[in-house]
């Protein structure tokens, strides 16, 4: 299979999710001439705003964040070299559901939802919005989240459900012929972080927290609050939250050669990602495993051991 015959589709919940989790992967395959399609399920209307002069755009103030996030998404796609990016059902069909935080510090569904919140969407209706895209673009590989949405965000969970259902419906010849010719996705992958990667990230976060506590105590200032990263016991033997055993990783994409594109895309999402966000702590790091974007096999053709190409074994 030549690069020009390769077709990749990614289903993400909000603008910026694609750059933070799969930016290197998207830049790699776009640069190699593969067809890369991004489907974003909402416009991130409930997102935070980290730029002080733009805080008035928040949902609880002017509620005018959506068009700005679309502009940011467009700039990010330009940085990654991706030209085919669409919103599920069209702009504004499904709105950001927001989230609450559970006792572990992970995301969960909010009690207050917009009328068209993605979390409340009818699953079949949302899948029917994705089926024609799958049948038209005909991806061999489809990427989305796991059943927990990686960290519990309801829109991530819903994106997982919609992508999984739509892939099955798109392959069924007798289903909704009006939505296009059937197409069987060869391989479905879930975005993942390996346990080894997460342990290294947690160790770095805990050292940074200790340094901040020491600085605060020396200055007589309040000690910063802990996060689930800083509270996690690395000696417990437990698999850290938001990660999976290294053995479950089916394929890893080296993002190091595409780091400039990825960080440019992250910076494009300026209302969401602060300049001191943890992403940028690794910007000058040398090549190595921390740059890998990892994926679990969720269905379809297995990958050869040690795969470093999403399309390995599909030729």
TrEMBL record:
<dbReference type="InterPro" id="IPR003737">
    <property type="entry name" value="GlcNAc_PI_deacetylase-related"/>
</dbReference>
<dbReference type="GO" id="GO:0035595">
    <property type="term" value="F:N-acetylglucosaminylinositol deacetylase activity"/>
</dbReference>
<keyword id="KW-0378">Hydrolase</keyword>
<dbReference type="GO" id="GO:0046872">
    <property type="term" value="F:metal ion binding"/>
</dbReference>
<keyword id="KW-0479">Metal-binding</keyword>
<dbReference type="InterPro" id="IPR017810">
    <property type="entry name" value="Mycothiol_biosynthesis_MshB"/>
</dbReference>
<dbReference type="InterPro" id="IPR024078">
    <property type="entry name" value="LmbE-like_dom_sf"/>
</dbReference>
<protein>
    <recommendedName>
        <fullName>N-acetyl-1-D-myo-inositol-2-amino-2-deoxy-alpha-D-glucopyranoside deacetylase</fullName>
        <ecNumber>3.5.1.103</ecNumber>
    </recommendedName>
</protein>
<keyword id="KW-0862">Zinc</keyword>
<dbReference type="GO" id="GO:0010125">
    <property type="term" value="P:mycothiol biosynthetic process"/>
</dbReference>
<dbReference type="Pfam" id="PF02585">
    <property type="entry name" value="PIG-L"/>
</dbReference>
